[in-house]
Amino acid sequence: MQEIPKNLNEKQMCEALGISPKTAQSWRHNGRGPAWYRLGKRLVRYRAEDVTAFLDGGRIEAVPGR
């Protein structure tokens, strides 16, 4: 896995998660997905640790014997 920059723009975050920009926009509108912040009126940024926490939150560990 490639190293994720400290702060990601929408395109970088989408590439890291393998989602489309439309999905990211929908998540923001509906209060889902990783935490984000806005710079000015249009720039959206994501902290790498928030994206990682979002991924870890959906993690399901395999249980042997199931």
Describe this structure in words.
This protein has 66 residues and is an alpha+beta fold. The protein has one domain. It is built from 3 helices and 3 strands. The chain has a 3-stranded antiparallel β-sheet with strand order 1-3-2. A hairpin with a 3-residue loop joins β2 (37-39) and β3. The longest helix is centred in the middle third of the chain and has 10 residues, at 21-30. It is elongated, with a radius of gyration of 14 Å. The protein starts with 6 loop residues before the first strand and ends in a 9-residue tail after the last helix.
How is the main sheet built? Answer: 3 strands, antiparallel
Radius of gyration: 14 Å
Our estimate of the beta-strand percent is 15-25%
Number of helices: 3
Amino-to-carboxy terminus distance? 29 Å
Order of helices and strands: EHHEEH
Q: Please give the order of strands in the largest beta sheet.
A: 1-3-2
Q: Helix content range of the residues, please?
A: 40-55%
Features:
single chain, 66 residues, alpha+beta, three-stranded antiparallel beta sheet, 3 helices, 3 strands, 17% strand, elongated
What is this entry, summarized?
The protein has 66 residues and is of the alpha+beta class. It contains three helices and three strands; from the N terminus they run βααββα.
